[in-house]
Amino acid sequence: xxxxxxxxxxxxxxxxxxxxxxxxxxxxxxxxxxxxxxxxxxxxxxxxxxxxxxxxxxxxxxxxxxxxxxxxxxxxxxxxxxxxxxxxxxxxxxxxxxxxxxxxxxxxxxxxxxxxxxxxxxxxxxxxxxxxxxxxxxxxxxxxxxxxxxxxxxxxxxxxxxxxxxxxxxxxxxxxxxxxxxxxxxxxxxxxxxxxxxxxxxxxxxxxxxxxxxxxxxxxxxxxxxxxxxxxxxxxxxxxxxxxxxxxxxxxxxxxxxxxxxxxxxxxxxxxxxxxxxxxxxxxxxxxxxxxxxxxxxxxxxxxxxxxxxxxxxxxxxxxxxxxxxxxxxxxxxxxxxxxxxxxxxxxxxxxxxxxxxxxxxxxxxxxxxxxxxxxxxxxxxxxxxxxxxxxxxxxxxxxxxxxxxxxxxxxxxxxxxxxxxxxxxxxxxxxxxxxxxxxxxxxxxxxxxxxxxxxxxxxxxxxxxxxxxxxxxxxxxxxxxxxxxxxxxxxxxxxxxxxxxxxxxxxxxxxxxxxxxxxxxxxxxxxxxxxxxxxxxxxxxxxxxxxxxxxxxxxxxxxxxxxxxxxxxxxxxxxxxxxxxxxxxxxxxxxx
Length: 593
What we know:
Elements: E1 2-9, H1 18-27, E2 35-41, E3 44-50, E4 64-66, E5 71-79, H2 82-89, H3 100-111, E6 121-129, E7 134-139, E8 148-151, E9 155-159, H4 162-168, H5 177-185, E10 201-202, E11 207-211, E12 218-221, H6 238-255, E13 263-266, H7 271-282, E14 288-294, H8 305-315, E15 318-324, H9 329-338, H10 348-359, E16 365-367, H11 372-376, H12 383-386, H13 393-401, H14 406-409, H15 423-433, H16 440-452, H17 457-466, E17 471-473, H18 479-487, H19 490-494, H20 500-507, H21 512-515, H22 525-528, H23 532-542, H24 545-550, H25 555-563, H26 576-589
Parallel strand pairs: 13-14, 13-16, 14-15, 16-17
Antiparallel strand pairs: 1-3, 1-9, 2-3, 4-5, 5-6, 6-7, 7-11, 8-9, 8-10, 11-12
Helix pairs in contact: 1-4, 2-3, 6-18, 6-20, 7-8, 9-10, 10-17, 13-15, 13-16, 15-16, 23-26
């Protein structure tokens, strides 16, 4: 795990701006506090911040250069099957390290651009093929590791965070009306390739982008599971599916124990993270576990310790219970926003920031339950799709998930910043209509998992963990598990009000009160009902001269929200003032005027 940065000069006669690459790399210090490196040749420069997890020696440092093969790489993430690949390639290549980074280089030399088909893991890769004068930018299948790009004066810059690109200088920071439309429609989700800034884009998940002299960059999407029923599963019973999914999840958990340092677990006390602890116990592991709780407000409970304590006691983990008082929340909000690569309106971002602060004092790696709801139909808005006709998938998602429709956005944004068309609805409708999904629920889960999720829970946990130099691993987003569950009959997933298959697996492993409890969310009561210092912060931010000069939001709408700060709730249960306030606070913290 780390941060990568670099620059590709479009004109072969040019030279990379090493100063810009060094500034970008330096900005990502928290992602890799264990070391830094730079490399440049010809029209390419690479930068790297290192978090030492596999091969802690200097032999694993990056950027890694193989002069014999004519290759160089800067790599962020982890290849979970690197030991198996190393064994497969060892008859052909000599290895100088025990790192997964070197396996990436050898795999590319052996398989070419198809090397990515052999990688099991999460990754953002910048690979330079010096002999062919070719550069590859590669993002993992589910978009777990981020990769931002910007065009600056005939140069393509890339980095693991958006603020790193800003530190390089010269980025167009004008707001993007389509990105704003997505942000406000989907409670702060802006799917790749867009961001809220016109000059910054993201390499989409499961994509290889190839740069070659004299040619426009070309993208290749190398993975997209089918959400259809397959002949090989035609005779499977519900019990067959349960056994297969459990085995795949066990493999996913085992894969994510690969490390030369200890691996812990973020334990919320919910079904998903509790399953991870139970499956690790079957691997004879008793990990360090971490739970966080906040002060309760009215009928909003601030912690789920009764459940996380029960799991920690049952499986004998080294448990850490973290309690946060309201007096810490306002400053934690500002710190969390400062750590966001993009503005994120979910109130639990601050909770992740605080829990990872504690985690960093004990371990460098944690497993967490992100992605289970998207893959296994665990959200409330999945239920309407379960009984809908295939042709109605877009309408169902719009009614259940979109915070605002296009006409309502006209009441929030000044006319200059409102996209001329319903770009969010059109994007979702296109994605939902694509072939390869049998039912409305199949289509919704595919859109949720492959379009929306990388820029919501996945981005959330990556940003907040890396703010403290912690690597977060997500077993529920294992590529083989996702492929298997995509083929599963959707009614097995939506059963029992969602995650039916997982609940049945959980009943074999966990206390029933954890499995059959009402679905919980990461509770931060001080951010679900705004008052006190947090509300003061939002008032000051939204009423500041900078916000007024920006002129993006209609003043009458902002004033109405400030007058009744808890009066408007989004479909996802968020606070509308909070979503708008995070956007403005993020813009101000990152110097975007």
